[in-house]
Write a structure and sequence with these properties.
The chain is an alpha+beta fold and 413 residues long. Helices cover 38% and strands 21% of the residues.
Length: 413
């Protein structure tokens, strides 16, 4: 067997993937195997009894949005009674930030990897603060979700179609040169996204007032492009999955209770361990005692070679997650030690345009004792409260060790 050759193949597929935002559609109509009694969530599989507060809150909010429940107690009854099925977003070519809950009637972005023919999906971004993805579900959250679904989504769908598609890979490459890292800092990328869509939003909107409100809301949301970026990274990572004998990690995800990974050469199997609480900066009035363990599918960005792996390109990120610009540089340098390749399209000006470290190699993680760097938002541990800060976290080493043992067993090495 030739693990190195398999990893070169997997890394090349990830890097060569061409991720383009081609449209939007209702989740039940476009996500593979989605059905009316299914809710998708971030991270590895989990049931209601083990679900964290933010995830329970987001499930409750999604069922209220769908008209299936009016309270957390009713939501719990539906899920525990089997009327509602829970499944990881990753099992359905989908990703979602934080709790990641995606329900059947929500509109989702459609990203296509034209190089390899696969697609990926993600829901829309609500902005900062008290939002569904952090487990909030009150009337303000519901009103925002309904406005996004009834007003913004139809216009965005028409605008994306009229644009002929938006090359998210090219957008990301440019954003990295403008101070983004693609995970927690997306200010430049969101402006580029708005620039690409604005003429078409103006063209397809039914009124100037509608166009103005949509443009303003996108412009005010520095995370507007995060969800299409996550779907693009999912399309890239999926292109590298199921390569026999490859030790590259193609999924990293958290559900607020467990941190899980999947490996290219090990199929659909998850390797999980308890998720940890991020270390970082808290909003006024909050601290470690209020924080939930790490949550979200947004680690798909690090999996594809950006986010925490590209922090050197975004020194200002430290004002949000803590640390110094030197820490951001060192974080990226460290990640070269556990990756199989350097990205061709994603480059870092501060390193003379060296490619970002890409393709986490299971063997190198265990050999060096270095786990991937992740920067992330911090959710309150109770449902209904929302985001309370942002910081840094690392996956538990034991999931990489367990995966490597499973790899050795499968391939008799």
């Amino acid at each position: 067997m030739d693990i190195n050759k398999a990893n070169v193949t997997a890394a090349q597929r990830m890097i060569e993937a061409r991720a383009t935002l081609i449209g939007m559609g209702k989740a039940i109509e476009v996500i593979p195997d989605m059905h009316e009694n299914l809710l998708l969530h971030a991270g590895p599989p989990i049931d209601w009894d083990r679900a964290s507060g933010p995830l329970r809150g987001a499930i409750t909010g999604a069922l209220i949005f769908e008209g299936r429940a009016k309270s957390e107690a009713e939501a719990e009854k539906l899920v525990k009674g089997g009327q509602i099925e829970l499944a990881p977003c990753h099992h359905h070519s989908t990703v979602g930030p934080m709790a990641g809950v995606t329900s059947p009637s929500m509109s989702v972005y459609i990203v296509e990897n034209s190089e390899h023919g696969n697609r990926a999906f993600s829901n829309m971004n609500e902005g900062y603060g008290k939002v569904l993805r952090y487990g909030a579900y009150d009337d303000d959250v519901q009103q925002r979700l309904r406005w996004m679904e009834e007003v913004m989504a139809p216009v965005l769908a028409k605008a994306i179609e009229a644009s002929g598609g938006i090359d998210i890979k090219a957008l990301l490459a440019e954003a990295l040169h403008m101070g983004d890292e693609g995970h927690n800092r997306n200010k430049a990328g969101s402006i580029l996204y708005l620039k690409a869509l604005a003429p078409y939003i103006a063209r397809v909107s039914d009124s100037l007032e509608t166009a103005e409100e949509i443009l303003r809301r996108i412009g005010d949301n520095a995370l507007a492009v995060l969800n299409p970026v996550m779907a693009a990274c999912k399309a890239m990572a999926d292109a590298a999955h199921d390569i026999p004998e490859s030790t590259l990690v193609t999924t990293m995800a958290r559900n607020g209770t467990d941190f899980g990974i999947r490996v290219s050469g090990l199929g659909k199997r998850w390797f999980t361990a308890p998720a940890q609480i991020p270390r970082g900066l808290y909003f006024s009035g909050f601290g470690d005692e209020h924080a939930n363990a790490d949550i979200g599918d947004s680690t798909i960005t690090e999996t594809a070679g950006i986010g925490g792996f590209a922090m050197a390109a975004a020194p200002a990120i430290v004002t949000f997650i803590s640390g110094t610009p030197k820490d951001a540089v060192n974080a990226t340098l460290e990640m070269y030690e556990i990756t199989a390749a350097e990205h061709v399209a994603f480059t870092i000006p501060q390193f003379d345009f060296r490619g970002t470290p890409t393709g986490i190699d299971l063997r190198k993680v265990v050999e060096t004792g270095l786990t991937p760097r992740v920067n992330t938002g911090i959710a309150h541990k109770e449902p209904g409260i929302g985001q309370i800060g942002a910081g840094l976290v690392r996956p538990p080493m034991e999931i990489f060790e367990e995966a490597l043992r499973a790899f050795a067993q499968k391939y008799n090495i």
